[in-house]
Specification:
Elements (H helix, E strand, L loop, with lengths): L5 E4 L5 H12 L3 E6 L3 H13 L4 E5 L5 H14 L2 E6 L14 H29 L4 E5 L12 H21 L5 E7 L5 H14 L3 H9 L10 H11 L11 E4 L7
Parallel strand pairs: 1-2, 1-4, 2-3, 4-5, 5-6, 6-7
Helix pairs in contact: 1-8, 3-4, 4-5
């Protein structure tokens, strides 16, 4: 496995996905950028990756739709040999379990679980067909190894992502394919910003109080940065991690020990 092939990153136009894509580009991969609602951000990322000397393509689509993963595979084939697939696209709703609507649970399930499932299948089938010892990295969450209040539906989907990763690691090992879950802590992305608005409304705390409360639970005293996640994913995709599979790797400053 060499950093000269193609990597696919879903949900890559912003936040964690953007950092993951730039770190993989720095490691030598050409990129296929999956996005759904931010075409201008995706275009800016493509320009940035090309400035790094990498080729890049962008694919619009809802990761909950299996056809999107097919399109991502086709775009990767135009660039070269697919070697890395990162299932990053995700959504969350911050609400008490008793106030969580079936529609909110279903949407999180469709994107977080089924989106990962579709991407995992598409990547694995492509790797097997090409005889590539590929890497699949599923972005879960520290909430996928420990539940948190008001994130019940989200936690359920991320626990499922960890479970899918473990089963896939066992079943795909014979093909030389590794599968791992990366579990970020609280990063100040657009998704987390929306969660904080809900938390402020639920608790009556001020934005500063909410942020300080979250920071108080992190031993290293700072929030997770997108680059923390990008660096870990790039490591998991690197030759140094060739013996790593079936693991849920937390990057969270010690807020959850796993």
């Amino acid at each position: 496995m060499s950093a000269s092939g193609v990597a696919v990153v879903t949900g890559a136009s912003r936040g964690l996905g953007r950092a993951i894509a730039t770190h993989l580009a720095a490691a030598g991969y050409d990129l296929v950028i999956g996005y759904r609602s931010s075409p201008e951000a995706a275009k800016r990322l493509v320009i940035e990756l090309e400035a790094l000397g990498r080729r890049a393509a962008m694919v619009d689509g809802d990761q909950a739709d299996a056809a999107t993963s097919v399109s991502l595979v086709e775009a990767a084939a135009e660039l070269g040999t697919l070697e890395v697939w990162v299932n990053n696209a995700g959504v969350s709703v911050y609400a008490p379990l008793l106030d969580t609507t079936p529609d909110d649970l279903e949407r999180q399930h469709q994107v977080n679980v089924m989106g990962t499932f579709h991407g995992l299948q598409a990547a694995a089938r492509t790797f097997i067909e090409s005889g590539t010892n590929g890497r699949i990295v599923n972005i879960a969450s520290e909430a996928g190894v420990q539940a948190f209040p008001f994130l019940g539906a989200y936690s359920a989907t991320k626990f499922a992502v960890v479970g899918l990763s473990q089963v896939a690691a066992l079943e795909l090992a014979e093909h030389g394919i590794t599968v791992n879950a990366v579990c970020p802590g609280t990063a100040e992305t657009d998704m987390v910003a929306a969660e904080r608005i809900s938390q402020i409304e639920l608790t009556g705390a001020s934005p500063d109080e909410v942020r300080a409360g979250l920071l108080s639970t992190i031993p290293l005293g700072r929030h997770c940065e997108p680059d923390d996640v990008g660096a870990l994913v790039a490591f998991v995709a690197s030759p140094a991690a060739s013996y790593l599979t079936g693991q849920a790797l937390c990057t969270n400053g010690g807020s959850v020990l796993h």
